[in-house]
Amino acid sequence: MTDPRPRSLWRGRLLALVGVVLVAFSLRSAVAALSPIISEVQADFAVPTWVAGLIGTAPPVCFAVFGIVTPILERRFGLERLAAASMLIVTSALIARSLAGDAATLLLATTVLFAAVGVGNVVLPPLIKTYFPDRVGTMTALYSALLAMAAFVPPLVAVPVADAAGWRFSLGMWAILALLAVVPWVTLVARANVARAQAPVTVDLDAPAPGVLGRLPRLALAWALAGTFGISAASVYACFAWLPVVLVDIAGVSHAEAGALLSLFGAMGLPWSIIVPILITRSRRVGVVYAAALIAGLTGVAGMLIAPAAATILWVVLLGTPQALFPAVLVLIQLRSRTHEGSVALSGFAQSVGYGIAALFPLMFAVVHELTGQWQPVLIVFGLLFLATIPTGLIVTRPRTIEDEWEHRHGTW
């Protein structure tokens, strides 16, 4: 399948470009802004440990649930309406969270926020496929780079802003970007409504078949992409939950050094988010990305097991390299689907299963450590996670779409 001839990113689609940029940044800034200032929040009202734990678990759980729900909503409302609605709910939830007066309100607002972010996660890849079919690599690189930036920029500014203007302003200020993200998509919906009203009545003979989401569990390609997403997401959530503690215990670093190394781990997502989409769309080197993630991940685990204090920075960099699988999946969702509805369903399925896996791994690490009293078995589990890139990579690297796979096995899509 060849891409259409590339044209200007902004000619005739400037609103979509602005909308993608604002939504992408809002998706992660909404998630990353609370944890750095939770102590300031607790100075105003009590936030029990179990509530803080639920807030930490909520993102992958909400993302998994709404990965299933969003394709169903898309058939009823359309991508643009869902993008606008999700950002409007994000805006409201951010404001509600900044005005919270107790832990229950904080938890409720945060859960609603993550639910809306889950919808936005699913609709952005199909929106890129719809508006930028000739620039899939460039737009996915931009999108995933913004996600990476929004994961570490809010923590850098949250505390200084909270010190200067209070934690409520620090949490609520991100609502401005989310509200601005509503405007492009509402405008595009209004334009489409006007164009539809002026167009002659036609019969759509090629309407997408219903029930596409229900077909995906029967396709190996869909499971391979979902598994790839899960490997990347699980490694990120597990490291953000446990890497500082592991580094302090087995590498002998200070708590401050462990925090800096965690920031380095997070920053590893940024260069890969730029390089990988372009590499895949221009050279189709999907296998190279999987091989790099596998080799780097296993080497990082081996280094932490054998000589954790010898080259700690290198091991952390290597452990952060499998984050390259995240932008790879975002691109492959678009390249491994032929139809609009296939793209939406595949995005929802991959993210739902992937975030479900991600929600389990931090808890699994805690259980393994509790049972063994050591971090080495936990690192071995981490290595087994990376080994899963072998079967998933072998399936994903075959150049076919989910529609091709279904038609080969079951007939007409």
TrEMBL record:
Annotated membrane topology: Multi-pass membrane protein
Annotated Major facilitator superfamily (MFS) profile domain residues: 12-400
Entry-linked InterPro entries: MFS, MFS_Cyanate_Porter, MFS_dom, MFS_trans_sf
Principal subcellular localisation of the protein: membrane
Residue ranges of the TM segments: 49-70, 82-100, 106-128, 140-159, 171-190, 220-243, 258-280, 287-307, 313-333, 345-368, 374-396
A Gene Ontology cellular-component term: plasma membrane
Keywords for the protein's UniProt record, in alphabetical order: Membrane, Transmembrane, Transmembrane helix
Compartments (UniProt record): Cell membrane
Recorded GO MF terms: transmembrane transporter activity
Pfam families per UniProt: MFS_1 (PF07690)
Name assigned to this protein: Putative transporter YycB
Organism: Microbacterium laevaniformans
Lineage summary: Bacteria, Bacillati, Actinomycetota, Actinomycetes, Micrococcales
